[in-house]
Amino acid sequence: MWWSIQGWWAFHRTAVIGLLVAVLIGVGVVWATGQFSSTQAATGQITGFGTSMGRRPQAIALIRVDGRQAEVGDPRDSRCRIGSEIALERRRSLIGQRYAVAQVPEPCRA
């Protein structure tokens, strides 16, 4: 029995260690970006609209919240104009605060 476990470990050692490293990196990234952190309500003001730069360009809203500039995904609300207030969700993480449009039917107020 002992020799079969030792033989299995000798054969699969690199794969098991690689899998453990990959899992630890994945857990670290999720923890650092705050994907499972609690959300807090926030309110911002829309300062402009644009398109994100990257592999998949998408519409974004530029907002001013908590005294700083941030970007959120397109609010998809016809009442959203430059200068409108917008309801947001704030997530805290190790790399800073992240904002998203609140999941409410009408996030923008004129």
Q: Quick summary of this structure?
A:
The chain is of the alpha+beta class and 110 residues long.
Tell me what you see in this structure.
With 110 residues, the protein is of the alpha+beta class. The chain has two domains: 1-33; 39-109, OB fold (Dihydrolipoamide Acetyltransferase, E2P) (Beta Barrel). Helices cover 29% and strands 39% of the residues. It contains one helix and six strands, in the order H-E-E-E-E-E-E. The protein has one helix at residues 2-33, and strands at residues 39-51, 59-65, 68-73, 85-93, 96-101, 108-109. Strands 1, 2, 3, 4, 5 and 6 form a six-stranded antiparallel beta sheet that branches. The longest helix has 32 residues, at 2-33. The radius of gyration is 22 Å and the shape is elongated. It starts with a helix and ends with a strand.
Percent of residues in helices comes to 25-40%
Query: What letter string, H or E per element, gives the SSE order?
Result: HEEEEEE
Instruction: Give the percentage of residues in beta strands.
Output: 35-45%
Number of strands: 6
- Low-pLDDT residue spans: none
The average pLDDT score comes to: 86
| CATH top level label of the largest domain | Mainly Beta
Query: How would you classify the helix and strand content by structural class?
Result: alpha+beta
- The CATH architecture of the largest domain is Beta Barrel
Give Rg in angstroms.
Answer: 22 Å
Coarse shape = elongated
